[in-house]
Fold these 2 entries.
Entry 1:
Amino acid sequence: MSEAALDPAALAAALIRRPSVTPRDEGALDVVAAALERLGFTCHRLVFGGDGSGRVHNLYARRGSGRPNLCFAGHTDVVPTGGAEAWSFDPFGATVRDGALCGRGAVDMKGAIAAFIAAAQSYLDERGPGFTGSISLLITGDEEGAAINGTCRVLDWLTEHGEILDACLVGEPTSAQALGDMIKIGRRGSMTGRLTVHGVQGHTAYPHLADNAAHRLVAMLHALTTTEIDRGSEHFQPSTLQVSTIDIGNPASNVIPATAHAVINIRFNDRWTSEMLKSRLAEQLDMVGGRYTLDTSVSGESFLVSPGTLSDRLAEAIRRVTGRTPEFSTTGGTSDARFIQAHCPVVEFGLVGLTMHKVDERVELADLADLTQIYRTFLGLYFDHS
Ligand SMILES: [Zn+2]
């Protein structure tokens, strides 16, 4: 392998020019696969889901057949621009301005994918035929969406095909203010509850003949929002419950409503499973009493990958390149790491997330170069311990 060194900024720009808003691919994975095939990776294009808009494009690529197999996981899909006219540049133009590469996906997370591929090239070139492990990439086109036909399905495919991941680095933008200040070693779980309270309709002048669903809903939400769920744990913030909406939609001021609805969202730490939380909710709602239904959906359980070799090596790589000591955090929303952690130890580290999902998303070119160096150093520490 004596290819010219791959420029992560050029590769990131090529990816940004593909407007791959979930679940559209628009050729983004072609760009990734072409870069990887040049480096000797075997690429598997995995398309899951029905025809049309539900169809999700994914990629699993591997170089080498030995162990350990270190996997980099990420996504080429991006969130919508929210109206391109609000942007100071074309969201899919990959403009370079004031030392930053600008466009949707620059930090979340086309930049990190480009950085990892450049790092892999540099590492593989240096090791040459002496490298006996494997480097793989699991890239999905459905992280920002339902995440049903993305990472989950690819992991099933890997299991079916006897592919084993020994460790995984997820390239989400975990840095908070400066590159290297934070890595994620776990994530909180997320559960949504749709609560419907059933009462008896009536005239507001005759409340003794009715059962006001709105009053009971208010009492239930009061109970849920004024009690502490927990005080956090060693690596997690306290669990939180937020009311997302309250809907009664009663147009008449003299009618007592028969039904009232609310949606709550709970972000929970490793003291809870979603099953435990459901029992707790039922207890609290039963205390208020009356007829109600609660439908819950869980987008992810909480998980923690206890700090250990993988996170220590990543932290060491970050220190060597940036001089910073990263905080080991479990804050923020869910990520595809929630699926991968069932297969192998996983850590998450990537660019500064300040502009992600926002208008004028951008990555400093200096950060992109440093991230490439960090990933490169991490590969050396992971495979060669040096
Ligand atoms: Zn992301």
Note: The first strand starts at residue 42 and ends at 48.
Entry 2:
Amino acid sequence: MGVYVDVDYYQIDELLTEEELDLRNRVRRFVDDECLPVIGSYFEKATFPSKLVSRLAELHLFGAHIDGYGGHRMSHMNYGLVCQELGRCDSGLRALFSVQNSLVMYPIYAFGSQEQREHWLPKMSQGDVIGCFALSEPEFGSNPAGMATTAEKHADGYSLNGTKMWISNGTIAKVAIVWAKLEGEIRGFLVEARTAGFRATAIQRKFAYRTSPTAALTLKNCRVPEGNLLPRAVGLRSILECINLARYGVACGAVGSAMACYQVAAAFARKREVFDKSIASYQLVQDRLVRMMMEITKAQLLNYHLGRRMDDVKASHAQISMAKLNNVREAMTIARMARDILGARGILADHHVIRHLCDLEAVSTLEGTENIHTLILGKDLTGVSAFW
Ligand SMILES: Cc1cc2nc3c(=O)[nH]c(=O)nc-3n(C[C@H](O)[C@H](O)[C@H](O)COP(=O)(O)OP(=O)(O)OC[C@H]3O[C@@H](n4cnc5c(N)ncnc54)[C@H](O)[C@@H]3O)c2cc1C
């Protein structure tokens, strides 16, 4: 019986250039051969797959948005394809790639001084230094403009005070980009993890994003030299520049997770016999598989067009919001349908679906919740803000 188990129903591959296909296939092989066989164990133990960092560097996946400094700038299209493939394996692994590239290396490159670029970017390109992006706080997540973390100017630098929460890579990062208010204005600071007054505490007992080390950061009279202020990182506008890149990565990674769930469910449906027949032969199961493939295909097309628009510098932040909102929401529905098709086995780690489902719960909150993206789109469509 021919159950369709590929996940490119509209042959979107035909729209990709040879160079894009080549990169996608290289990352796909890396994921299939080196990541998928081990990721379940890291997830179960809630440990960071540190061995994969050097492999990501060897594949030239760090420095995706930068020229020079050891980086390997890639198009947005390629960035999205890499996110999709890594997301097919694990959202935490995708986060390692997108945080390092979009939220740490990009702001250092775009807003940093020459010294800051030269000091940090080559080491980050090689994977020797992992960074983190510290924006959210215990009381300010969806509304970062309200942040309570402050920076105070001294003769020789700044002292930072505050708490940051839910920071991906927080416990493994050698440097954090900390966003704080300096005389009421949001600015970005490079804070080395070894700085006195800086502490990263792992957030334990997470049921999602288990391969990604999430931390609370405390800054207590944490003094950084003058040269650690990112000179051109000013206000929410700079933050949004980084976050838009990361949101696109999330939109693509979620499709990867959905593709993985579909593949497992479709293969299982073909093999599993109930009432003496393969469950793939039942109309209700077919309905689910069709709905899964239809939403995956629509999301793939959304990502494809968005990637091209971003490369042409034409994509709006609201268009990025639509992809994040739609793709994560649909990926969650697809993961749930896949879990259902697997019956009881769907809750076992062996099939990976439950892992994706748990991760997607976190993915729906980070980089802006469903509500926040709906409000962004609502404002874009009506011209009226409904945020408060
Ligand atoms: C695994 C993980 C990794 C993360 N990594 C990072 C990171 O690396 N760096 C970083 O800075 N942050 C990170 N975050 C934080 C993430 O960005 C925030 O969790 C997110 O912005 C939501 O903030 P919150 O959790 O405080 O929820 P809240 O802002 O408290 O929202 C709670 C609920 O209220 C709703 N809500 C809020 N305002 C409105 C409104 N105006 N109208 C309607 N509904 C509203 C939200 O949609 C949500 O449903 C991470 C989070 C997770 C879970």
Note: Residues 235-271 form the longest helix (37 residues).
